[in-house]
Amino acid sequence: MHVRQEILDYLYGEIVPRYAAFDPAHREDHAEAVMENSMEIYRNAPEETKAEINPEILLVAAACHDLGRINGKEMHHADSGKMIRADGNLRRWFSEDQIETIAQAAEDHRASRESEPRSIYGKIVAEADRLIDAETIIRRTLQYGISRYPGMSAEEHVDRALGHLYDKYGDNGYLKLWIPWSGNAAKLQEFRRLLADPVKARAETERIFKSLES
Q1: 83 CB-near residues (< 8 Å, 6+ apart)
Q2: What is the pLDDT of residues 18-45, one digit of tens each?
Q3: Cβ atoms of residues 29 and 139 within 8 Å
């Protein structure tokens, strides 16, 4: 796998730092994690699938997937696509068709999207963005709520977080997985076992909320 150094310099020097302005759950560490996860999924892909993937396109799509959060959460996926298409720097390395592929991957990554991503790039970025780890998910959910709703009480934050967790990750949640070799399916089942016990799920959410307060 080879990504040109000038592209890496642009991503880590110009793109990732923009995440510093976003909510605490979507800062630079989140962008870097999605980039790393995307590359890991690429490395583990079946050979016939790997042959179809340009790792530079994938890494740029992963780096840029949440740029639209500068305008808020609601339409951030669509705004990310617009910002990618408007980025003149990307034309130093990619054709218009490749930039469109990058933009569509960003547009298609959102977990609440009902239709399947339009390309393997969108599927990988969406999968990499899932970051299915119980503690990480609960912490990021609470961090978003704390930054978005500072007037809420501790109990209200925990209630809001649990509601979101069940809506997204529960047995009937809207989260969809697209990459069978990523390992996320097993992690999701493990997380659902925690959510299936409401007492344990609340206790864990309260524990993590208290750790954020300290």
Answers
A1: 64, 67, 68
A2: 999 998 889 999 999 999 999 999 999 9
A3: no
